[in-house]
Design brief:
mainly beta, Neuraminidase, 6-stranded antiparallel sheet
Length: about 425
């Protein structure tokens, strides 16, 4: 029987030094943070996506690799523990984690970010950046502009689960640079978006009231970042659904968006109430002529490899990238957009890999390391794996071995010691 690694873990741990196979790169210094749902009191009828957030931290230093994990102390966590905690953050904070303006933020898409202590992972409280953010939805997938350091964000269902969408930017220092609101073609779940030097691009799919309604059609909203919300236009696109984008950029009067497109969203019901089965998502490229206000989005498949959790060297976010990475469930995939070639690192049957996270080493795109967490089914444990991002097929440069497992989660990011 195959063990389902979505089953939550029941304990928090601290391990000062993990055994290592291979050689950790001496220049790789910092912490890989990961986040995912880990319900305190699992309920079989509850959707996996709504479990209480648990953050995992792999600290990589000259002395080796340490690990700790902590539940985010939200009101949901407190209620499940039967505790009374004053001013506990709302939501479950279970989807992503990143650093901005000195704040380590646990994110989900229905509530404010939750600030954590980077060293201890202690929950510090809901983070509104000194009152800059309203108490409203904030995406789990904000984008760091590598040119300005700004954090670009959005929030769907901005007023009582309506069709309103907020779009904003926090400066590198955490001050509010923009916050505007507009209406979408319909009220739907919007998990991810894309940002270029000039534009914000919001793919809108008909997952409405958490029910798949494909007859409503899909759209792409495009806003000029300098002109603001008055420039937002919605363009029709073809069928399908995507949780995640890989990147977007401008190309000779056109907008290009790479995203993992599937036929329908898995794990959600259709209009007949039947939950949709898992289906492959493939890397596809959307193309929109920006010179035509009535243009529709065209789409073509880039890869026949089914997968999820696409990432890039994020120094190239918003500009054309050559190297892309994603999980293929039992493998990591590195795709070269220039040649179309794909290279893989595969794990044994029953094992699985988490979202890959790129860490720069040199100045050239793709010169760095790729980090992932591998679940080992035979031992029911997990390993932190470090690859040379230019040659993942050669296997890990190093593995740090946990005596426990990291349950299947969603997203993470690396914070270097210099940060």
């Amino acid at each position: 029987m195959v063990f389902d690694n979505r089953v939550p873990v029941a304990m928090e741990h601290d391990f000062a030094e993990l055994p290592i196979t291979g050689q950790m790169p001496p220049a790789l210094l910092g912490t890989l943070y990961r986040n995912g749902p880990n319900p305190v009191r699992p309920a079989p009828e509850a959707h996996w996506f709504v479990g209480d957030g648990m953050v995992h931290a792999f600290s990589i230093g000259p002395r080796g690799v340490g690990y700790k994990n902590r539940w985010v102390r939200t009101q949901s966590w407190a209620d499940a523990q039967g505790q009374s905690m004053a001013q506990s953050p709302a939501g479950v904070a279970n989807t992503n984690i990143l650093l901005h303006a000195g704040h380590l933020l646990a994110l989900e898409e229905a509530h404010l970010p939750v600030s954590l202590d980077p060293a201890s992972l202690a929950t510090l409280g809901a983070e509104n950046f000194a009152g800059a953010l309203p108490d409203a939805p904030f995406t789990a997938h904000p984008k760091h502009d590598p040119r300005t350091g700004a954090l670009v964000f959005f929030g769907y269902g901005a007023t009582d689960f309506s069709d309103t969408i907020r779009i904003g930017e926090l400066s590198q220092s955490g001050s509010l640079a923009r916050l505007e609101q507009a209406s979408a073609p319909y009220a739907a779940m919007v998990h991810d978006f894309a940002v270029t030097d000039r534009f914000v691009a919001i793919p809108l799919f008909p997952l409405i009231g958490y029910t798949w309604q494909p007859n409503r059609g899909a759209w792409l909203g495009v806003m000029d970042r300098e002109k603001g919300i008055s420039s937002l236009r919605w363009h029709k696109s073809g069928p399908g659904f995507a949780f995640h984008t890989m990147n977007a950029w401008e190309d000779d009067g056109a907008l290009v968006v790479d995203l993992m497109l599937s036929d329908a969203p898995p794990f959600f019901p259709g209009t007949d109430g039947i939950v949709l089965p898992a289906s492959d998502a493939n890397l596809c490229r959307w193309h929109l002529d920006l010179t035509d206000p009535n243009a529709t989005v065209t789409s073509r498949k880039l890869s026949g490899t089914g997968g999820e959790f696409p990432r890039i060297d994020e120094r190239f976010l918003g500009r054309s990238n050559r190297h892309g990475y994603f999980t293929a469930f039992d493998a990591l995939c590195h795709r070269d957009d220039l040649t179309g070639a794909e290279r893989f690192f595969r794990v044994p049957d029953g094992d699985s890999v988490s979202e890959p996270v790129f860490v720069p080493r040199g100045a050239a795109e793709g010169d760095g390391w790729l980090l992932t967490v591998i679940f080992r089914a035979d031992r029911c444990t997990s390993d932190l794996a470090v690859f040379d991002a230019t040659d993942i097929a050669a296997g890990p440069l190093a593995l740090a071995h946990l005596p426990v497992r990291v349950p299947a989660g969603f997203h993470g990011n690396f914070v270097g010691d210099a940060s």
